[in-house]
Amino acid sequence: MKVALFIPCYIDQFYPKVAIATLELLEKFGVDVSFPSRQTCCGQPMANSGFEHLSHTTNQLLVENFSGYDYIVCPSGSCTLHVKDHLHVNGEDQAVSHIRSTVMELTEFLTDVIKVQSLPAVFPHKVGFHQSCHGQRGLKLSQMSELVAAPYSKPEKLLQMVKDIQLISLDRADECCGFGGTFCVAEEAVSVKMGKDRVADHVSHGAEFITAGDMSCLMHLEGILKRQRSATRVIHIAEILNASAQ
Amino acid sequence: MSSAPTIGEKQLDHAELAERFNKDEGRVDWHDQTLWFIRNKRDKAAQSLPEWEELREAASRIKSNVLNNLHDYLIDFERNAEANGITVHWARDAQEHNEIVHSIIQQERITQVVKSKSMLTEECHMNDYLAKQGIEVIDTDLGERIVQLAGEAPSHIVLPCIHWKKEEIGVLFNKHLGTPEGNCDPVLLTAAARENLRTHFMSSRLAITGVNFAVAETGEIVICTNEGNADLGVQLADIHIACMGIEKIIPQRKHLGIFLRLLARSATGQPLTTYSSHFQRPRPGQRMHVILVDNGRSERLGSKDFRNALKCIRCGACMNTCPVYRRSGGHSYHNAIAGPIGAILAPALDMKKNADLPFASTLCGSCTHVCPVKIDIHDQLYKWRQLLVQDGHVATSKKAGIKGMSVVLSSPFLYKAAGKLGRWFMKNVPKLTNNKFNPWFKQREMPEPPKGSFRHWYRENRKK
Q1: What Rg do the C-alpha atoms of chain A give, in angstroms?
Q2: What is the pLDDT of residues B22-57, one digit of tens each?
Q3: Is B138 helix (H, G, I), strand (E, B) or coil?
Q4: CA-CA distance, A63 to A39, in Å (whole number)?
């Protein structure tokens, strides 16, 4: 099984440790994984701003870099969903449809393909899990509170395998953090207020760490926590699942 | 009724109005929690029905059938309604609708009418129109009466004065209805409104209502209220005018068993509205009119991407669940219908004026999944964004910024160089990003730049 590692642009440039944790985690499970070196971005920043027509080159790059693999694994629900829903290249229908159907978010790859039953990870902390909307409502990684349906959560199932972790519960289990791509600057006031409210929910329940499957949500929440000089920190779920005893 | 705030000639956009709303954080918290309480009530009500998701699916499919056969159902409705003694009118747009209402009122030489809740008349700005013709409309829904006395538009389609605190209503009623100064006891205030409205009910010969459902098979309309104000108005009046968008049709009476159960639970968490009243024919001596209004709906029906928005039953659940709406307030959408559903309906009415609204969302998708008729609201927001940009409704600065970004992201070389440069500047010249012109930095710290990128690390550590 050949797996390509798809690293979101902002993780590559600003949070390399998240990409390293993702790579090491996949390697721990014996996955034959490599990082196609000419990848850049899924094109979502343009498309969500209404400029989908400017993402044709990033789409082409995606097809060039990620064709010929069994799976493409990405530590972001949002980028994964964007590729799944919106990747399009004229004349490359077959390659595109293969990519769209084999691109997977990290935690769903671990639970559904690798079928992980146990993890060597240790993380002796109180942790709040933030549901990133695109992973949850888009990729259906967890059940959403809007529906009348049986609960489940692929990322939380993995977190529960981590030794000594204490997962806290929240007042609002799956409210958006307010990042929203360019929304975070175009609608600065509401974006920050949403982020502050999410942070407050986690902090009031004693979270030492806020984790999520999407670093973009966490970057936004981290910006707020740091401005508040809070002791609570953010950490990507890959870092926790890859954490060993200190 | 006041329109949205402006500076000079320019109408403020959603982001600007939202920023203004956020100046009082305590008020934002109160507004958010009030609406979240209703979202929770909705959840409990929905969870009490194990068949909830099947009901949503059935409702969505019935509405698909209605949209696919709208022409026939409308003709059926007209024929059956007229056989029941109802006069049916067709209005192409808001102007025609207002003129029809006015001509009926004029024939009767009436100067004051009562009106129960109708978002369609808000959409048509009917009250303003009639006021210019010297006709006063008294809104009889308590929430609508409150915003009417305040000279405002409703901020929510089900809860028109949800942005008002009871203390403020006390002051308003003291001024307009003479309630004791400083008294904000809800029982006292409601009694005062009731007494005042009663005089209008008693003296009004004409009642205007909205329509929740119009049944093609029977030619009857159904109106849902909690206050009974539509019923009282109609029962006391000689003339009843019911105004409806053409999408309010349902095929058969039995379908109400699905829609009535979904509507009240989604709107307020009640099992059923207090009154779900059927009006099938005028009572002896009464005259009854139904106005079928298009106002852009036919055009939307012809658009594959946006036609599903016509399934909306106006429950307001998407507003209550929307994390943006709860923190920006209904007036920030500067339209009769606010929130996520308003943001996909308004651009169809006026793209230029409402170009900001599809961007007033994080695309979290909560609206789509709370919607009782399964409208793909957040996907439509995404599609509106594409259309608005293609039609040129976008600021030049934004266009340039996105274009620049796409150039960088389209070239692995430029992308690598820009990342390196970005990290260097953030580390060595933090003032370049950490300043008041950067909206990110206003209330958030910038991420700490790492030593190098992941691709650099990968080349050093993994590449054989």
Answers
A1: 17
A2: 999 999 999 999 999 999 999 999 999 999 999 999
A3: strand
A4: 9
Residue A24 CB coordination number (10 Å): 15
Residues of chain A positioned with their CB less than 8 A from the CB of B36: 172
Q: How far apart are CA B386 and CA B380, in angstroms?
A: 10
Whole-structure pTM value: 0.96
Residues B364, A176: C-beta atoms closer than 8 Å:
yes
Contact B11, B23 (CB under 8 A): no
Binary contact (B324, A194; C-beta < 8 A): yes
> DSSP class of residue B255?
G
Closest among B172, B109, B98, B88 to B131, alpha carbons compared: B98
Angle between helices B396-409 and A56-66 (to 10 degrees): 20
Secondary structure (DSSP) of B304-329: TTTGGGGG-----HHHHH-TTHHHH-
The CA distance from A16 to the nearest CA of chain B, in Å, is 4
Given pLDDT bands bounded at 50, 70 and 90, which one contains residue B432? confident
Residue A103 to residues A5, A13, A39, A65, Cα–Cα distance (Å): 10, 21, 14, 13
Chain B: nearest CA to A204, how far in angstroms?
16
Alpha-helical segments (H) within B48-93 = 52-68, 70-83
Q: What are phi and psi of A188, to 5 degrees?
A: -55, -45
Answer yes or no: is the ipTM higher than 0.95. yes
Q: Taking CB atoms and an 8 Å limit, are B447 and A46 in contact across chains?
A: no
**Of A88, A174, A191, the residue nearest A135 (C-alpha):** A174
Q: Decide if A40 and B32 are in contact by the 8 Å CB cutoff.
A: no
C-alpha to C-alpha distance for B129 and B102, rounded to whole angstroms: 9
